[in-house]
Design brief:
- The complex is a heterodimer.
- Chain A is α+β, with helices and mostly antiparallel strands.
- Chain A is built from seven helices and 15 strands.
- In chain A, strands 1, 2, 4, 6, 7, 9 and 10 form a seven-stranded mixed beta sheet that branches. In chain A, strands 3-5-8 form a three-stranded antiparallel beta sheet, with no helix packed on it. Chain A has a three-stranded mixed beta sheet with strand order 13-14-15, covered by helices on one side.
- Chain A is elongated.
- Chain B is built from 23 helices and 20 strands.
- In chain B, strands 9-12-6-1-18-17 form a six-stranded antiparallel beta sheet.
- In chain B, strand 3 and strand 4 form a beta hairpin.
- Chain B starts with 5 loop residues before the first helix and ends with a helix.
- The chains are: A alpha+beta, B alpha+beta.
- At the A-B interface, helix 2, helix 3, strand 9 and strand 10 of A face helix 3, helix 5, helix 6, helix 7 and helix 20 of B.
Chain lengths: ~325, ~675
């Protein structure tokens, strides 16, 4: 309910509409695009009105002001270009995430010459992160992108843009980039299925078993860990979320198999497998995975878990 | 001031730039608006340092329309002034609402509007420099509020750099941007306080005008002419009709000026007239030819312009120093007109002269004698004794006060002449002037304003008579020490009790005047003609005939529209500047034939996944191509060997028909 402040049309609306009208220029594989911001439009409108006024009134002072403002405006474009040019970007693939989480890509931006101000970084269509760069000081920028689907999240576009110095023009520079993030299936706990295990080995579904095993230690919490196993004391003391680990050597190894799961939706079956893998791992049970022909033998440990999740993600 | 809190730090520069930009305009807006502005600024500044209640949303909502009404009600209608009032008040109100950076940007952008409206008011060097300074500071603040990481001092340096780099472009554009000398619509005048002769002269009006030391016009003689001071009568307005106590222009004829008696030398010169918002131009007595736009010479040898002079105007005149104009017969009665019944003593005095004299010259000489012998005093402050409603002003002056400025002497003299049956008219203009030692030109100020009389002698020739010269010869013939040649009396100096300007000040005043003259000549009067002259010096003739101009215009319009249409309708989907990309598209096309369509957003890896899903038989080959492509395109591997194998792989890649796959 702002009444006295000016209400402007939504910024992104203007921007996306402009993309259709203003063509970009490509130089050495980098796609440049230049468009005025809202205030840029106001400013240009003012300049045009000034010029028309100066011509019609034959006012030399008007001409002088028009050309001064216009020239400052033009020269500022050079500064805009210099601000965004020559930035070295070191990009890293994001560590794997589960579907539904945000993939975190870390970019290191370095300016060799000149300090840079108001550099906006984005990957694909992510929100822009604004940062300032100082000479020869690498500036880490984290960009979070939602990983919606299982598989490989692929980033193909890096956009650096700036409206420095006057904020009236926006110059964006798009470059092709190849960044990936492995997206594991989202762990899905399905009560119905766990009550009616499909495979023989699943009779001893590990969730129900809590007693009779030796406590072996604490491990960083991973999604899917049972709530009963969370070590609340360490959370309360500020050490973060940990799960209690138990060694249960008495149990045999499990092999989770895709074909044993009921249901027609492949994705939900994979999600359930993902849950099983995480649960088995958190409870220290040796387990294996069978996806059609692809079989991973029963084993334990972090490396094994990652291998299993990767197989699930890429299936 | 030592410790500014965060809000002060971010708001103070905006406040300063708003005040700087609005300040010169407070002179142009109405008093209530100026007071309101200052009050709002004061309150805003105070609220930065002390905890004062800020106007909330309701107050601001109410204040908006109220200020709108104040802005338009206190100024007259839709003028530049009311527009500026509105802007100034709205920005002042906006200062209370600087919550986000965007609010600040709005305030600063609006300040640009305030700055540029200065073009309607004052185009002197000082005003222009101030405008440039405010543009400079405003721009620095604009940068600062958007990129707070750059400190204000660094912003100022950056803006200085921007402005310095912009200057050459500005000058190029200023001098070479095509000047079209047509008014698209009616020109509003350069709004400024002008002073000069009005249409009427009454006792005391010229004395008031002469208190100002503003420049009336400047004159540049084309040949090196040495004119004595007593010949520098700058003729302006000629007044025929005495209406009560006021001299008016009276009946106008559109007759051509009659021949004049040729005597003396011809003088050609250039006049640069400051705007005085009246119709006449000034020229050395007696002008015989004038070269000025929309100007003609009236029957009484006054130069009349069709439009009022509201911009600085340059024109060239040829004068004949000894020439005397002849009478238009039908105007004879106008030169004898007097009000019906007033100033009895003056009338009887004039009648006595008439009966005693044989010729008109004798009457004139008697009248001049009368002024010389009766202890008249020449003063710029005649006092306010002359009641404008009194019927007997001339009597009052001639017989009791005997103190007056040139218009008192001239008006009374003309009255006496008419009463004695000698046709007479009043001429208003300037007398003398100062030569600028630095610039070889003459400066004529308002303080040189003068009024004299022309009487019609036998032979029907108008003769100039200046009664002031017999009362105050020093006004016309300056004493030898040349004091009157200098700027002797500056009103603002006499405020401090200094009557004589020191030598260095006089020099700097002359230098400043020269600078102003050049500024006006080269910058503010730069026009289409100046552009032609400048370009012809560079060897370019821009005076195209109309046909060529039309053809050029048509070609430009066609080219521009073609460019625009191609841009809109034939936008290339994707530029292929890279061999790898070219073959990648080729590869994609091949796969599309097989029914595996790549969507625009699909990257190579996810496309490969699609291939694997839909056509596992192609996966092996496709995988290799994708791997090579990624190597080339995203790792920027420029190894020609890889490029070669990529090219070959794409070329060899074939899609077998689906049926064949099944049959295998």
């Amino acid at each position: 309910m702002k009444t006295l402040s000016f209400q402007f049309p939504h910024k992104h609306y203007i921007r996306s509409a402009l993309h259709y009208v203003i063509p970009g220029i490509k130089i050495r594989g980098i796609h440049y695009q230049l468009y005025p911001s809202f205030f840029g439009f106001v400013f240009i409108g003012m300049l045009v009105a000034l010029l028309v006024g100066s011509i019609s009134h034959n006012n030399n002072l008007g001409y002088l002001i028009t050309f001064l403002l216009g020239s400052v405006f033009l020269v500022s474009l050079l500064h805009t270009y210099r601000n965004v040019k020559g930035i070295e970007v070191l990009a890293h693939n994001a560590p794997p995430v589960f579907a539904g989480q945000n993939a975190r890509f870390t970019l290191h931006l370095t300016a060799k010459k000149n300090d840079r101000f108001g550099i906006e970084v984005s990957l694909d269509n992510s929100p822009r992160i604004t940062t300032n760069l100082f000479v020869k000081k690498s500036e880490p920028v984290s960009i979070f992108l939602p990983a919606i689907k299982r598989g490989v999240l692929e980033i193909n576009k890096l956009t650096l843009s700036t409206s420095y110095p006057l904020g009236l023009f926006h110059l964006s520079m798009q470059s092709r980039i190849m960044l990936t993030c492995l997206v594991y299936p989202k762990p899905l706990r399905n009560v119905l299925d766990s009550n009616k295990p499909a495979g023989d080995n699943e009779k001893q579904a590990p969730q129900q078993k809590t007693g009779g095993r030796d406590f072996t230690g604490l491990q960083q919490y991973v999604p899917g860990d049972s709530l009963q196993r969370i070590h609340w004391k360490s959370l309360a003391s500020g050490k973060g979320l940990h799960s209690k680990q138990f060694e249960d050597s008495g149990l045999g190894s499990l092999v989770f198999s895709l074909k044993d799961l009921k249901g027609s939706d492949l994705e939900s079956k994979l999600a359930r497998l993902s849950y099983l893998v995480l649960t088995a791992d958190s409870q220290g049970i040796a387990y294996g995975l069978q996806l059609d022909q692809h079989v991973i033998g029963p084993a334990k440990g972090a490396g094994h878990k990652i291998a299993c999740l990767k197989a699930l993600a890429l299936y | 001031m030592s410790s500014l809190n965060k809000e002060q730090q971010s708001t103070l520069p905006i406040f300063i730039t708003v005040v700087l930009c609005t300040l010169p305009h407070l002179l142009h807006v109405s008093v209530p608006v100026a007071i309101l502005c200052i009050a709002m600024w004061g309150y805003h500044l105070a609220s930065l340092y002390y905890s004062l209640p800020r106007p909330g949303l309701k107050v601001r909502t109410l204040a908006g329309p109220l200020l709108f009404i104040v802005a338009f009600a206190s100024n007259e209608g839709l003028t530049v002034e009311s527009f500026i009032s509105l802007l100034a008040l709205m920005i002042a109100l906006k200062l209370f609402e600087l919550r986000s950076g965007r609010d600040g940007v709005v305030a600063v952008i609006l300040s640009y509007f305030i700055i540029v409206s200065g073009m309607f008011f004052n185009n002197s060097i000082g005003a222009t420099l101030y405008i440039i300074f405010t543009i400079f500071y405003n721009t620095a603040v604009l940068i600062h509020i958007q990129f707070a990481a750059i400190g204000l001092s660094r912003c100022l340096r950056l803006t200085l750099l921007l402005t310095l780099r912009a200057l050459p472009f500005m000058l190029l554009l200023f001098f070479f941007f095509p000047r079209i000398q047509i008014g698209l619509w009616k020109r509003p005048p350069m709004i400024s306080v002008t002073s000069g002769f009005s249409e009427e002269i009454s006792l005391g009006s010229v004395a008031r005008l002469a208190q100002s030391d503003k420049v009336a016009f400047r004159v540049n003689f084309q040949e090196n002419t040495q004119l004595p001071m007593e010949q520098l009568y700058w003729r302006g307005i000629v007044l025929w009709q005495l209406d009560g106590n006021t001299w008016k222009r009276g009946v106008r004829t559109n007759q051509m000026p009659k021949f004049f008696a040729r005597e003396g030398q011809k003088i050609k010169y250039n006049v640069t007239l400051e705007p005085h918002n009246e119709n006449w131009l000034f020229a050395l007595d007696l002008p015989v030819a004038v070269a000025a736009p929309m100007t003609w010479m009236r029957a009484d040898y006054s130069l009349y312009r069709w439009r009022k002079v509201n911009n600085r105007l340059s024109y060239t005149v040829t004068s004949n120093s000894g020439a005397q104009p002849r009478l238009h017969k039908n105007l004879l009665q106008n030169a004898l007109q007097l009000p019906l019944d007033d100033n009895r003593r003056a009338r009887s005095l004039a009648h006595a002269w008439k009966t005693e004299s044989q010729t008109k010259e004798e009457i004139v000489n008697r009248a001049l004698d009368y002024f010389q012998t009766n202890a008249f005093m020449y003063t710029i402050e005649p006092g306010a004794r002359y009641d404008n409603n009194s019927l007997n002003q001339v009597d009052n002056f001639l017989f009791s006060e005997r103190k007056g400025f040139c218009e008192h002497f001239a008006a009374s003299f003309a009255y006496l002449m008419r009463a004695a049956g000698v046709p007479a008219r009043l001429v208003g203009g300037y007398l003398g002037g100062q030569k600028n030692p630095y610039g070889d030109y003459w400066i004529i100020r308002q303080s040189d304003a003068h009024v004299w009389v022309e009487v019609l002698l036998d032979g029907e020739i108008w003769q100039r008579v200046d009664p002031t010269s017999v009362v105050a010869p020093e006004r016309i013939y300056p004493s030898d020490d040349g004091l009157l040649d200098e700027v002797t009396s500056l009103p603002w100096l006499s405020l401090f009790g200094i009557n004589q300007a020191p030598q260095w000040l006089q020099k700097s005043i002359y230098a400043w005047d020269l600078l102003n003259l050049r500024w006006n000549q080269w910058i503010m009067e730069y026009s289409y003609d100046s552009q032609i002259r400048l370009l012809s010096k560079l060897g370019i003739d821009i005076r195209l005939n109309k046909g060529v101009a039309q053809i050029v215009l048509i070609i430009v319009v066609l080219l521009a529209s073609t460019f625009f249409l191609t841009l809109v309708f034939f936008r290339p989907q994707d530029h292929i500047d890279n061999e790898a990309a070219k073959y990648w598209l080729f590869f994609c096309k091949k796969l599309e034939k097989a029914g595996i369509v790549r969507t625009n957003f699909q990257g190579p890896l996810s496309y490969l996944a699609t291939v694997e899903q839909q056509r596992p038989d192609l996966y092996k080959n496709a995988k290799r191509i994708v791997a090579l492509y990624i190597d080339l395109r995203y790792r920027n591997n420029e190894d020609p060997a890889i490029m070669h194998s990529f090219r070959n792989a794409v070329k060899k890649f074939t899609v077998k028909r689906q049926q064949e796959v099944r049959s295998e």
